[in-house]
Every structure is written in C-alpha cells, then in structure tokens.
C-alpha cells in the first residue's frame, strides 16, 4: 500500500535492525485517514470470495485498524484482552502470547460470548514479526470452533520468520507493507515491492 509505505519512510524510526517505531500514526498517535484507507484495502482484499462475520485483533494497537476493517465488512470487531478483567469470569478463551517487543509472555483472553462455531473470523494486527500474536489469535479462533478467513497485517517484517511460518501452515496472510530490511546505521527501510499473499 503506497500511502502506508510513504508514511513509514517519512515517520518510521529505526530503533534497531529488528524494531521499527511508528508511534506517530499507528502505535500511539493514530492517523484517521490512513487507518480508514487501510480498512478499505483489507476489505478489498478479503471480501473476494471470503465470508467474514467477525474481525479479531489484540488490544491496543490493532483496535483502530481492526475497527475500520470491521466497518467496511459491516461486522463487529472483537479485541483480545491482555489483562484479564475482573468482570470476566471463566467464560473466556485463553491463549499465551510471547511478546517480541516486551520480551514477556502474556495471557490473552476473549469472552466466549463473542466468538462461536458459526463465525468466520478475519484476524487483523499491526505488526507481524515472529508470528506469536497471530498464532495466539488463531488458537482462540480454534478454541471457539470458528473458521479463519485470513490474517491482515499492517506491517510485516519479512526478515523475521512469522510470515513464512504462517503461510507454510496454510493461512492466508496479507500484509499492507512488507519490510525486508531495517538498516539502523544508514537509517534505511527497504520494502518488498510485490506484497506476498
Ligand atoms: P510477533 O508476535 O509476530 O512476534 O510480533 C507481533 C507483535 O509484536 C505485534 O502485535 C506488535 O505489537 C509487536 N511488534 C513486533 N515487532 C514490532 C516492531 O518492530 N515495532 C512495533 N512497534 N511493534 C512490534
């Protein structure tokens, strides 16, 4: 997605050879126009021949783009919670996710009320690195007995192995921008021109 790649080039901060900070439009401050455009792009891609009844993401950075995607499909957005709320009883699906950026394992939960075996779920997330977050969400979809329509990722770091792992497992992964290299020294971000599907 051209607009997103331009934004990443203009505002992305390379923290290391493996971590990109994009807090000016995705992870802290949010760009509304870009977020709406990303929702439309995911809709265009995944509405072809796929049934989607729910969009599923993880709090907090997936929520904005998950919402604009859900709006296009006209379906609810469900976000997995990282901290178990006191008002959530045991009626939840639980999965463990190791966080690449925080280097800690979190339990993510989704209330059983909001996902069922009748659902066709589209997973949306902000970043794909080693695929831990995506696999945690897949586990929740499987626990619900729901079917998985695909995974839409805003920024895939293609030099990490998550994308390959998920595609090899047969999941339909679509990324709006694929980064093949973060050059910390030269402050250069290289994209893969043709997005892998
Ligand atoms: P994974 O679970 O695929 O290893 O990592 C994906 C999750 O880690 C995303 O949900 C995102 O929150 C976080 N993440 C991974 N790499 C980056 C990065 O380079 N920058 C930012 N801002 N978040 C990242």
From TrEMBL:
Pfam families: Pribosyltran
Boundaries of every Phosphoribosyltransferase domain copy: 43-186
Alphabetized UniProt keyword annotations: Cytoplasm, Glycosyltransferase, Purine salvage, Transferase
Protein family (similarity comment): Belongs to the purine/pyrimidine phosphoribosyltransferase family. Xpt subfamily.
Pathway as given in its UniProt record: Purine metabolism; XMP biosynthesis via salvage pathway; XMP from xanthine: step 1/1
Entries under NCBIfam families matching the protein: PRK09219.1, XPRTase
UniProt function note: Converts the preformed base xanthine, a product of nucleic acid breakdown, to xanthosine 5'-monophosphate (XMP), so it can be reused for RNA or DNA synthesis.
CDD domains registered for this protein in UniProt: PRTases_typeI (cd06223)
Binding site for xanthine: 20, 27, 157
Gene: xpt
EC number(s) per entry: 2.4.2.22
Binding residues annotated for 5-phospho-alpha-D-ribose 1-diphosphate, in chain numbering: 129-133
Assembly behavior: Homodimer.
HAMAP family (alphabetical): XPRTase (MF_01184)
GO molecular function (one): xanthine phosphoribosyltransferase activity
Catalysis performed (reactions): XMP + diphosphate = xanthine + 5-phospho-alpha-D-ribose 1-diphosphate
Domain of life: Bacteria
Cell compartments where the protein resides: Cytoplasm
Keyword flag Transferase: yes
Protein name: Xanthine phosphoribosyltransferase
